[in-house]
Design goal:
Shape of chain C: globular
Order of helices and strands of chain C: HEHEEHEHHEHEHEHHEEHH
Shape of chain A: globular
Oligomer: heterotrimer
Strand order of the largest sheet of chain C: 3-1-4-5-7-6-8-9
Strand content of chain C: 5-15%
Number of helices of chain C: 11
Low-confidence stretches of chain C: none
Structural class of chain C: alpha/beta
Number of strands of chain A: 16
Radius of gyration of chain A: 21 Å
Chains: A alpha/beta, B alpha+beta, C alpha/beta
Chain lengths: 381, 83, 296
């Protein structure tokens, strides 16, 4: 059924459709409306789940972790400082190989204080062993949550679904909320996994010198995740008619210059790319939807014909540059690619990335013969 | 074959902690009144019922000496471990 | 002796802690675990944070406990127990006890926030703190459960700790949870009786178990039980129960012994001065009065 809802509401509807059994959450702007709605679903019985009003995000993730080891399908949502507070438990969740799904509403990290969109919160968690998706629309958010449960339960690794604060989280759009029976068909109850069982006692998370072996298993499964994500996406398309891919390329096939970004900035990029196309300049857009595992080979393939790429990061690593840009450059290393990668930092702390900004990015990239330091867009004067 | 993560499933009973011992309790069955206090207070499950009596398992006994200290009959003597 | 006396078991025979565990000789914490599990029985799931208990519970692929266990982050003992309870409820699994098992560091210090959260929600868990008055696993550092006058590696002699032990029981009582008890490994039958009582209730139940540590307290390993009993006999660790935050029941008073008897057995109190002792006696008198008043 089609509904006009915000992306945060889309998350809540998706979690209801996924029949999560334990939800533990703590409020934080701009995430709070997700768990407000879910607490309502639980209270009214629309969703047969236990809702734990925890006293911190650390506890939210810890509750999801233990409930998941006990065998339940779990969910939490957070943002920014909350995600940072969860950091320790994020490692536990992946190390215990738990299929937890979490929504993170991207928000800038203090200090200084800023409540608006910035991807540095989730990108700071890139080494925690979680799959990371970055979404562009309310529909994609819904579909990705549903897909994530299936992927997580097949792979036994947790998944973080990211959506930008306010720009996406609070924007109302038409979202097709599928029939429950169709969701059930795509996402049956989780396949059995080893869990806490009084009849077969085992200890989870023991101390071990095989640590490196278990880490290697995670690495191998992260590689497998790329295949599973594509399979899941293809099957999703078969049932619901929508697919996203790990990367979302737009007019990249013959492009000389490719704009690369994640999340909502991609939409504006497509509009500006079309304008430049009418002026005879072959511009394409590559949106990165899956960040962990990083689809390096797909990125290499997508950039094969291009001469220049401009990476627009709504995030940055102080002392280094845009985080996506670094990953993309690493992916190209040794591949024989001659594409020149230009770096742009834009939209930090929820700053609008306008069509003018994107036009400037394109002009700058055209005019420069080789990349220099990352360029900062939208600094106030 | 390793499990997917560090899930322990084998009991520690194969770990012979008796090797740690530097002193050894010796139970005098003549003096023993079978009250079971040594059994109850042994941290290492090294005092065990064996038919009508208690026995000390030197496989596990770490030689802490609690059994001798708590025995109301003075039936347990602590001696130096000779190996 | 004429005739062989009948063999006796002063407490439940079932053992859910396996031998071969790696606790130090004379460990009080492992005795606490043994007794609590004798009370709870095999239909119990436990969470254990990093602690001596974590080490004792075994390294992969071995386990010293005959119940399912999850090793968890230090500050999350109570909430991870709550998470398991929520999962069991959601999956319709009944008649299972969820045990949160933590030392004093994980309870009085780093895990206090999560414990307070669980208690305020009255989550259906049994939280047992084995109290050995310091961070023993990391090498005998001070915790907020370390008593005044005690040496630890972070309250070095001759300066030692200069503030009293945090009163965790009063903090828990302020949450008005259904059941709180203090117990000691020196009195296993009493401890198991309290576990059984806790078992019959629903909601957050909290038991503080006094568990001497020969390694950290600097005494000879055979004295563990004797020291545990002395703590009770000197009123340093009074045994009592609190139901619903207000109904106090004190254990019958044991033979009163001077507090000096307790201190002199332990190397960690070697730097205790006469005026420390006087303050202790005054503090104990006040605490006794308080408990008597609360018990009516």
């Amino acid at each position: 059924m089609k509904k006009v809802i915000s992306a945060n509401q889309s998350v809540s509807y998706a979690v209801r459709a996924a029949k999560a059994q334990v939800i533990a959450a703590y409020p934080i702007t701009p995430q709070s409306s997700i768990v407000e709605m879910l607490s309502g679903f639980c209270a009214s019985g629309e969703l047969n789940a236990r809702f734990i009003n925890v006293e911190s995000e650390h506890s939210a993730m810890a509750a999801c972790m233990s409930a998941s080891v006990a065998g339940a399908r779990t969910f939490t949502a957070t943002s920014s400082q909350g995600l940072a507070l969860m950091h320790e438990v994020l490692h536990y969740a992946s190390g215990l190989r738990l299929p937890i799904v979490m929504a993170n509403v991207n928000r800038a990290l203090a200090s200084p204080f800023n409540l608006k969109a910035d991807l540095s919160d989730s990108l700071s968690q890139r080494d925690t062993g979680w799959l990371q998706f970055y979404c562009e629309s309310g529909q994609e958010v819904f579909d990705t949550i549903i897909q994530s449960y299936r992927i997580a339960e097949q792979l036994l690794l947790p998944v973080m679904v990211n959506l930008e604060g306010f720009i996406l989280s609070h924007t109302y759009e038409i979202v097709d909320v599928p029939e429950q029976r169709d969701v059930d068909r795509f996402l049956p109850p989780a396949p059995p996994r080893e869990s806490l069982d009084v009849d077969n006692p085992a200890m989870f998370g023991s101390t071990t010198d095989y640590y490196i072996n278990f880490r290697y298993k995670m690495h191998a499964d992260m590689e497998r995740a790329k295949v599973l994500c594509r399979e899941s996406d293809a099957e999703f398309k078969g049932m619901f008619g929508r697919e996203y891919g790990l990367l979302c390329p737009y007019r990249c096939e013959d492009a000389d210059l490719i704009l690369i970004t994640a999340g909502t900035i991609a939409g504006s990029c497509r509009v500006v790319a079309d304008r430049y196309r009418t002026k005879g300049l072959k511009v394409g857009v590559l949106r990165i939807r899956l960040f962990r595992p990083f689809p390096a080979e797909l990125i290499r393939a997508a950039l094969r014909g291009a001469r220049k790429a401009a990476v627009i990061d709504r995030d940055f690593s102080p002392g280094c540059g845009g985080i996506f840009a670094q990953e993309i450059k690493a992916a190209l290393q040794g591949s024989g690619s001659e594409v020149l990668v230009f770096e742009f930092i834009a939209g930090l702390g929820g700053k609008d990335v306008t069509d003018t900004d994107i036009g400037q990015i394109i002009e700058h990239t055209i005019n420069m013969s080789k990349p220099g330091e990352s360029a900062w867009m939208g600094l106030l004067r | 074959m390793l499990p997917i993560t560090a899930i322990s499933f084998i009991t520690t009973e194969g770990n012979e902690t008796g090797e740690w011992r530097s002193q050894r309790p010796v139970l005098d069955q003549e003096k023993c009144n079978r009250c079971g206090l040594c059994w109850m207070y042994c941290p290492d499950n090294a005092v065990r019922p064996a038919g009508d009596v208690f026995e000390i398992s030197y496989t596990y006994c770490k030689g802490c000496g609690i059994c001798a200290q708590e025995c109301p009959k003075g039936a347990i003597l602590i001696v130096k471990e000779e190996r | 002796m004429d005739g062989i006396a009948q063999i006796k078991f002063p407490v439940e025979q079932e053992e859910l802690v396996c031998p071969g565990h790696t606790a130090c000789p004379g460990c009080g914490a492992v005795l606490a675990m043994k007794y609590v599990l004798k009370g709870l029985g095999p239909r119990t799931m436990a969470v254990i944070p990093p602690a001596c208990a974590g080490v004792i519970s075994g390294g992969f692929p071995f386990m010293a406990l005959k119940i399912p266990v999850l090793r968890i982050p230090f500050e999350s003992t109570a909430i991870t127990a709550s998470g398991i309870r929520a999962a069991l409820d959601a999956m319709g699994k009944k008649d299972i006890h969820v045990l949160a098992w933590a030392g004093d560091g994980a309870t009085f210090d780093i895990g206090l926030q999560a414990l307070s959260g669980a208690a305020e929600r009255n989550d259906d868990i049994i939280y047992v703190c084995y109290d050995n008055e310091g961070y023993m696993n990391t090498g005998i550092q001070r915790s907020s459960a370390t008593p005044e006058g005690a040496w630890t590696t972070t309250t070095p002699a001759p300066y030692v700790k200069d503030t009293p032990k945090k009163d965790i029981v009063r903090i828990m009582a302020a949450h008005k949870i259904p059941y709180i008890a203090t117990a000691s490994i020196g009195y296993p039958a009493d401890l198991i009786k309290k576990v059984n009582k806790a078992k019959e209730k629903k909601g957050t139940r909290f038991i503080l178990v006094f568990s001497p540590c020969p390694t950290g307290w600097r005494y000879s390993s055979e004295m563990t039980i004797r020291i545990a009993r002395l703590a009770v006999q000197t009123d340093l660790f009074p045994l009592y129960e609190i139901e619903d935050g207000e109904n106090y029941t004190l254990n019958p008073r044991r033979s009163a012994k001077p507090v000096r008897d307790y201190f002199k057995l332990q190397g960690r109190f070697r730097n205790l001065k006469e005026d420390n002792l006087k303050r202790f006696e005054e503090m104990l008198r006040k605490e006794r009065d308080y408990l008597n008043r609360m018990a009516g």
